[in-house]
Amino acid sequence: xxxxxxxxxxxxxxxxxxxxxxxxxxxxxxxxxxxxxxxxxxxxxxxxxxxxxxxxxxxxxxxxxxxxxxxxxxxxxxxxxxxxxxxxxxxxxxxxxxxxxxxxxxxxxxxxxxxxxxxxxxxxxxxxxxxxxxxxxxxxxxxxxxxxxxxxxxxxxxxxxxxxxxxxxxxxxxxxxxxxxxxxxxxxxx
Length: 190
What we know:
The protein has 190 residues and is an alpha+beta fold. It has helices at residues 3-13, 15-46, 170-182, and strands at residues 50-56, 68-74, 118-123, 135-140, 143-156, 162-168, 185-189. A hairpin with a 5-residue loop joins strand 5 and strand 6 (162-168). Helix 1 crosses helix 2 (15-46).
């Protein structure tokens, strides 16, 4: 019970003890921080080679100009089709803040459609309410084939029914074409 008054008296008579305790606490904090910093640097070095990628500064709606900042990412985290230069175009679909910009995120010369993509007319039967610029998942024969981008909605096709124009990446075009021939294509909003 009398320990606290004795400690206060000791520190009042010998102030160097107080400053010694402060110095020890400061040294412990400094050692902990430098150890944590060294650990982070070691982990970063273990990533291996890095590559400069472009990351969005904010969220973008389809058709908005993209602004991005250059960031160094480990090669294992870089998507294969990440853009090499600052994106100078409009968003082909919705982009989140902090997202790595890939080639399919930037609209091509024909508006929202990324360069190299193909456009298919898909019957609107059974599709949710979609708008131009929506990202859709393309299903056929009970499995997901790829993602696509809605370019136009509600135009009448040759059969007279409402159609949805969907742009898809070239690697998905053959599968989508086969599923359209079977009449087994379904769209889902992604």
